[in-house]
Every structure is written in C-alpha cells, then in structure tokens.
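Q: Hi! First time doing this. I have a protein sequence and I read that you can turn it into a structure. Is that right? Here it is:
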Amino acid sequence: MKNKFYFNLQQKITKGEAWRLLSKEFRQRKIENPLLDAKILAKYAFGLTDIELALKEQEIATIKQLEKLQQLGNYRLAGEPIARILEEKEFYGLNFKLNKATLIPRPETELLVDLAIFYIKQKQQEGKKKINFLELGTGSGCISISILANSNNISAIATDINKEAIKIAKQNAIYHNQNKQINFLLGNWFDPLKPDMQFDLILSNPPYIATEKIKKLSLEVRKFDPFLALNGGEDGLEAYRIIASNAKKFLKQNGIIILEFGKGQEEEIIRIFASEGFANFSLKKDLANINRAIILQKI
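A: Yes, that's right. Below is the predicted 3D structure, encoded as structure tokens:
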C-alpha cells in the first residue's frame, strides 16, 4: 500500500496523542468515521476498554503498542473494514467471531432474527412445545445463534459449504452457550440433510448479488467479503431457485420460510416460489423502509 502511516517512534507519544494522530490521518485520507475507527483500533492495540482509554490518555504508549496501532491503522487505510481487522462484529446484541469465509453481519439482517423469534413465540403460544429450524448458508452462525439465545425449547440445524465458516460458527455457538441446541453440517444448501428431516422453519440470507455487479460494490465489500457469500449467479437469484425447488420436502405442513433479499428482487422471488407451490407471501421492510425479507408458507 502506498503512503503508509507511521508514528515517529523516536518520540514519546501518549495513548491519547496516538489515536488522535491516527484519526487525523483517517480524516485526511477520507476514511468514513475517522474518530470512531481510530478509537476502536486504539482500544484493541492497547488492550483497553472505552473507560480505560479515557483514563489513560496521558500514559505513554510503548513502541510495541504503537507498532501494533500503526499496523492496524494501515489495514484500515487499505480499505479493510474494522470488523475484518478485529475479526469480530456485534449482531443482535451479541459479539461474533469472523474469519475470511464469513460475511460481516449487517444490521438489516437482524430483521430475519426478529421475524423468526416472532414466529417461534407465536407457535409456542398456540401450544407447540418444541420447534426446530434450519438455516441455509449459516456463515458465522450469527442468525441461528441469535435466535436460539432469545428463544426457549427450540433446536436448529445449520448448513454451510465452507468448512472454515462451519469452524467459526461452532466456536460462536460454544461462546454463546448454544452449542447443545444446534448442529452444524458441512455441505451445499440441503445436501447434508437426511431425507426424512423436517423443520417448522427454514431461513436463509443467501447470496443475492448478480455476478457482474460484485465488481461495482464498495472496496470494503468486493475485496474483503467472501465471493461465494456474495455471488448470486447471473441474475442474483440462483440460491432462491435452489431453495424453492428443495424446501418443500424438508418443511412441515404450514411451516414457513424466511429469506433476506436485495433491493427490487421481491417480485421475481415471489414468482420463483409460487411456481413451486408456496403461498401467503408477506414482505417485510428493514429500518431504511426497503423491502428486505419475505415470509413464504407451505400449504
């Protein structure tokens, strides 16, 4: 990377000066949220909490600490997102470990968790004691684990084609004490499932970016998010066709599917699922008032 950022390690620099110098560099280089990003990286490099960083503003940073912050700062200047640098991201109030095989969880995806929890509670109020669900393409496991952490008497199976994604998802499940409620299976979509498995709920945030559009995405996404987790095929809808053509045999009667999708894809997704016999389509908007999720029912 050209024009790397360096501290003058011959001078004594306080921890407060260090993160402010980095913030200034971020601002000059047009990094979004320069102040916040610099503080987050400083906390990580110095091993401090928010309060500790504020209390230790005048403490001299060691050369090792400055070198660490310098390294992290240059990762950010190269376009790497904060969540990638720290290898973790908050989602639905929980912290999740990430690796190169997993997407960074987006706030809009929390809508899937909200919808699933609502459905589960509704079914339980109707007298259904135990509920199970399937997540396709689990990635870090953030969706399934968040649902499990906020519900009772439920179990889950989650699949992913990438063994490194499955590995980190298992770690996240253990960290959040949900590993006994969920079984992670390695394989493509429905492939790892036994033919007789059936679920009350199937959900997924599948890849929905058309292949040609990926190169037009922001640097942070196209360079640092896994291609497989973004690539929805020629029209962005390849995964929805796979799900639509396979889901019915794994879904219990009156069971539902909850899917995230991209802007403007809803009409074609409804057509895909209607052709497979699904009905009672319901669209749900995200916080930006954009249609972001669809609920489909097996009848």
